[in-house]
Amino acid sequence: MLDVSGDSMLVVDQNGVIDMANEGAGRMFGYPMSALIGMPVRQLFVVDDELLSVLAALEVQTGRTMPVEGMGSSGERFHAMLNVGRFQEDINRPLNILIVRDEHKRRLAENSLERSVALLSVISEIEAMLLSRAERDTVFQRLHHTFLEFTSSEQCLLVAWTMGDEAEECLVPQAGEWPDFLPLPQQLSQTDMPLAALFRSLTAQPSWVSLPVMLGGEAAAGVCLLRPTLSQLGISILPLLAPTPTSWVFTPRKTGASCPRRNCGPCCRRRRPSIRHRRWGCCA
């Protein structure tokens, strides 16, 4: 039963040396059983003053439970919970028993939950800004800050295929600095697929990651990140990449503008109306 346990169980003598260990200890710390026996127990932990005092006086620490940081054979560290016990049978000398429970997965789950709750709060805030028709620049700056914060990126660029200042569709940077190595937005706007051309240019730079914002199966905007933490580019940020009818990607730049195409009948009858006419709200 002790060997199939996921917890590490260590019997330690008065000198802090491991006398016995279960299979769970070998799995947790990555040592063969033969290497654990005779090893100073402090070698399995990142030792601070508190832990050092506990290990130096195990006989008076019975029942003590404390968080510790374990250290595996290859140097990896993990969160754990240490419980100090003591067992004595008849006239035999008492045994100091350390039970170590790996808390790393639980801590990761807690951190992930906290991050998801924080991100949902930000998404609700952005939706409220959109519904209240907040200034475009304010919304974009909030989105920009959110992507930087939740992906730990060094730089973020938000760009959309939208209506420019000249009432023509073009590639428009919405927030963040345009990288010097890229062609100018005006140049990319002249290509057949401006956003695809932008993503290809960034793909040539190994430190950049591009996330397309899709609408109707077409890329309508992009989030470009410099050196993001890849593990944070999971499903939790997908709501920020999913446009809604009030999404920042499709808000006309000029107040009071109307659809440049007066007769939208043919477009509206298409199964997939163009992104252009979805933006103006004239297509179902």
Automatic annotation (TrEMBL):
InterPro entries xref list: PAS, PAS-like_dom_sf
Any single Pfam family the record assigns to this protein: PAS_9
Regions annotated as coiled coil: none
Signal sequence, start to end: none
Superkingdom of this protein's organism: Bacteria
Boundaries of every PAS domain copy: 1-38
Record-given protein name: PAS domain S-box protein
Organism: Chromobacterium violaceum
High-level lineage: Bacteria, Pseudomonadati, Pseudomonadota, Betaproteobacteria, Neisseriales
